Amino acid sequence: MSSFNRITAEQLTQIAAIVGDVNTSTTQADIDLHARDQSHHAAHPAEVVIFPTAAQQVADVLKLANEARIPVTPWGVGTGLEGNSIPVYGGILMSFERMARIVEVYADDFQVTVQPGIGHRDLNAELARYGLFYPPDPGANATVGGMLANNAAGIRTVKYGASKDNILRMQVALADGRLIHVGSRSVKQAAGYDLLHLFVGSEGTLGVITEATLKLMPVPAHVSAVVAAFPSVESAVETVVAVRGSGLDPAALELVDAAHAVMLSQSDGVELSEHPHVFMEFHAAHEATLNDGLEMVREICEEMGAVSFRATTDTAERKRLWHARHHSYEIMVRSHPDKQFFIMDVAVPISAYPELIDYVETIKAERDITAYLIGHAGDGNIHVEFPYTPGETYDKAMAANHDIVMKALALGGTATGEHGVGIGKAKYMPIEHGDALDVMRVIKQSLDPNGILNPGKVFPE
Amino acid sequence: MSSFNRITAEQLTQIAAIVGDVNTSTTQADIDLHARDQSHHAAHPAEVVIFPTAAQQVADVLKLANEARIPVTPWGVGTGLEGNSIPVYGGILMSFERMARIVEVYADDFQVTVQPGIGHRDLNAELARYGLFYPPDPGANATVGGMLANNAAGIRTVKYGASKDNILRMQVALADGRLIHVGSRSVKQAAGYDLLHLFVGSEGTLGVITEATLKLMPVPAHVSAVVAAFPSVESAVETVVAVRGSGLDPAALELVDAAHAVMLSQSDGVELSEHPHVFMEFHAAHEATLNDGLEMVREICEEMGAVSFRATTDTAERKRLWHARHHSYEIMVRSHPDKQFFIMDVAVPISAYPELIDYVETIKAERDITAYLIGHAGDGNIHVEFPYTPGETYDKAMAANHDIVMKALALGGTATGEHGVGIGKAKYMPIEHGDALDVMRVIKQSLDPNGILNPGKVFPE
Questions:
Q1: Distance (Å, whole) CA A170 – CA B426
Q2: Where are the domain boundaries for CATH 3.30.465.10 in chain B?
Q3: Which of A107, A431, B16, B362 is the most exposed place for a label (fewest CB within 10 A)?
Q4: What DSSP string runs through A283-348?
Q5: In CATH terms, is domain B222-262+277-315 a member of 3.40.50.300?
Q6: For residue B256, what are the β-bridge partners?
């Protein structure tokens, strides 16, 4: 790791001159508010928090920081789950709170250009009037810039893809202060290297996203929901595979394990039996399509031995059916009032999903760990949610986390499906990538030779 | 550009020792067969043509070539349209003809691992038994490796995406002789930099693809086709936008201009009136869905003033309806027996499509050029096909090509939607990318410091 300098009083004045005094803060409140994300990783104070209001300000601050060897950590809204935006080397915390505008809606192109600080929910509230929406939804109201930087995904990825699949063009500020454009508003482009996807998911370590043109989808005219319970995880996962293979193109395909179903039932009064449950959602242009589809889904579930099957095309009923899944995190938090929570994330090819889940269930049982398994099953992605007590059960949760990551890697999967590397997954990168990690390092070195961009992330130190 | 060395007799022996004598050829026939692709660009002979049979051989040859500064040009089956695989600096032509195996089918994962030399049609013939298919289809039976290297797309991209959207993992041989893996068989991955997409579309200038794991889709149970004619290009394109916005998720959405419709009718006896035509295809799990969809499409077309509308869910009838579009290239060639053909490729945001097409039609009329416009309208992509006579109308076609590329760039589009940069589009890269081209150069320099990988492509010289 490069050695960094502390910010001098003169540099602080220069930074404030770039972004404006009102957008520069060294108050303890602002430092504290930007010292940690929603993960279990330790807080670390930045030296200054700035709120740029224009791309050129971002570029100018990077240029200054690069020349002075001051670390810069970009910040969306702090919903990261692996310490991705914790300023572990201090320096400048660059919040995008004041770059949160919709720049232009291209309704005919199903595109929108936004500043990086806009929340995806806020964006979708505005887009509703055009009958369009931006599909990636990681749960929290993360910013678009943060989602792109971490390649966030969520429950609709099985149909609509992750952040990397819903982006066309970005403006990026480089460490040396240049502003470049990558990608194209043309949905097809075969013109040179795909820098767009190099910056997406690079967690602010190669450049800082200052503007993004997103792909939008028409809001589905009709939506249906299915909740089915199965005698075993195997039959639940076989159902997932069969539904994917049916051509029905589900918009969500989620697994909740039996322990989680019980917890949700006890804490929230939802009607879930002690079985693995599969939650599904389908989007279609006609209601008839949905009804035909639900008939096929019912047949598949019955063949797989479903012990219960509920389906609806009614909006209110759908919301009721999905309530437990949509609010599973809050329900878990409410039912463990004295705990802190750690949510881990791995993904595997779907054929390895039953083995991974079996492994998680075995670890839970053998080590007497309270943990809940929730999975974006259609994508082979799982989260294990560990309620823990710091100083008591934290180490046990961390040990389980480590073993599950190693298992996922052994199964041909990845250390992180959608939370990103941040701090917590950096040590797994050599195992996951082998010599390809050296190629990543070479690229990092060529674009950020002084290592000022979000240091301490992605690469093991 | 780096300076290269000619291959010495000793090096030729070393190369033959790596790949085997039977896989090493310096015959004039093999040199000639690999001197040009299907483009209008001039042929250039390699010094040796090799046919490696394993990834390690590819890596070992690259290591030798890198140390000796000998150019290496990868070759799929030579269907490129911009000189992408012409060995313009001589050296080693590396054909993947003998690395054309299916390595493994992961039916439950909807994935297949292949060697790069397999043709996508040959692959799909094998995959049919699993009820799965690999969607990208550029027309010719291009190899999967060539398609990935050029980010090939085709008529089904509007639903299934381009090559870059249907790839999960690749093995790549680097210039220094290392073999790395990029991407993951997990469909979700947020673990470090997206090297997968950096190599896809890099046209063999950053590394050589030696194996690829592709995403597959279930073969659609039901397919429908629509052919509609419109009074103007504007109403045809408005129809395209409306169909995309309807949520009907078309699998193909193609435009043929009035001149092309006339040529197709006269040469092939197909029933196309002298109007712009839109060809559509829809895929669904049930026939009922298709019928509902066709009703919606008919309403949209009528609203847009369609002068004719034909639709079917019958396979034979569908093939008849689409005959003219699927065979448009052969029909054009047959109807111009004394000509050579040059096919250009640009893409723009769909809102700019009418202006681009109007510009093409104006150029054709004002300059008295024979040319046919065919478009992947759903993607904003067009091809203009120029029949020309070398030494006579070639320059006129090239001048029109240049002007159309510049117009597409001015409209916020790209110099190439799916043919790649190759030789012909390199000069437009500074205009399309600005300073981002310097970032591409830095990456090229860091991965291929001696510039041996497919020199003369992508970057202007």
A1: 22
A2: 102-218
A3: B362
A4: EESSHHHHHHHHHHHHHHHHHTT-SEEEEE--HHHHHHHHHHHHTHHHHHHHH-TT-EEEEEEEE-
A5: no
A6: B277, B374
Q: Which of B285, B289, B419 sits opposite A190 (nearest CB)?
A: B419
Spatial distance between the Cα atoms of B163 and A15, rounded to a whole number of angstroms? 44
**What mean pLDDT, rounded, does chain B reach?**
94
Domain with CATH 3.30.70.100 in chain B: 222-262+277-315
For domain B9-97, give the fold. 3.30.43
Q: Which 3 state secondary structure label does DSSP give B141?
A: coil
What's the gap in Å between the CA of B132 and the closest CA on chain A? 9
Q: Tell me phi and psi for residue A453, to 5 degrees.
A: -85, 110
CATH 3.40.50.970 fits domain A222-330: no
Which residues of A fall within a CB distance of 8 Å from B292?
Answer: 285-286, 288-289
Position of tokens 């001696």?
B450
Instruction: Cite the residue boundaries of each domain of chain B with CATH code 3.30.70.2740.
Output: 336-433
| Closest chain B residue to A421, measured at CA | B191
Q: Which of A193, A195, A240 to mutate to test the interface with B (most CBs of B within 10 A)?
A: A193
B157 burial level (CB within 10 Å; 0-12, 13-18, 19+): buried
Interchain contact B148–A (C-beta under 8 A): no
Are residues B284 and A247, on separate chains, in Cβ contact within 8 Å? yes
Residues 274-313 of A with CB under 8 A from B: 283-286, 288-289, 292-293, 296
Mutate: best of B187, B282, B437, partner A, most A CBs <10 A: B187
Q: For chain B, say whether A416 makes contact (Cβ under 8 Å).
A: yes
Fold classification of A338-433 (topology level)? Alpha-Beta Plaits (3.30.70)
The nearest CA of chain B is from the CA of A6 a distance in Å of: 28
B431 interfacial to chain A (CB closer than 8 Å): no
Contacts of A440 in chain B (CB under 8 A): 192-193, 195
Residue B427, CA distances (Å) to A186, A292, B434 in order: 19, 52, 12
Is B221 in a helix, a strand, or coil? coil
- In chain A, CATH 3.30.70.2190 covers 222-330
CB count, 10 Å around CB of A92?
Answer: 26
Instruction: Tell me if chain A has a CB within 8 Å of the CB of B184.
Output: yes
**What's the rounded Cα separation, in Å, for the pair B188 and B285?**
25
What pLDDT is attached to residue B130?
95
ipTM for the complex shown:
0.96
Q: Which CATH class is domain A9-98?
A: alpha beta
Query: What is the pLDDT, as a whole number, of residue A326?
Result: 83
Cross-chain residue pair B108–A292, CB shorter than 8 Å:
no
CB-nearest to B247 from A106, A221, A433 is: A221
Query: What confidence tens digit (pLDDT) does each residue in B143-190 have?
Result: 999 999 999 999 999 999 999 999 999 999 999 999 999 999 999 999
Q: What percent of chain A has pLDDT over 70?
A: 99
- With contacts defined as CB-CB under 8 Å, which chain A residues touch B174? 439
Chain A residues 83-102 within an 8 A CB cutoff of chain B: none
Q: Residues 209 to 248 of A: which have CB under 8 A from any B CB?
A: 218, 220-221, 241, 244-248
Give which of A371, A440, A437 is closest to A403, Cα–Cα: A371
CATH number of this structure's domain B336-433: 3.30.70.2740
Q: State whether residue B389 sits within 8 Å of chain A by CB.
A: no
pLDDT, one tens digit per residue, over A267-314 is 766 788 999 999 999 998 888 888 888 999 999 999 999 999 999 999
Percent of chain B with pLDDT over 90: 82
Q: Which CATH number describes the domain made up of B102-218?
A: 3.30.465.10
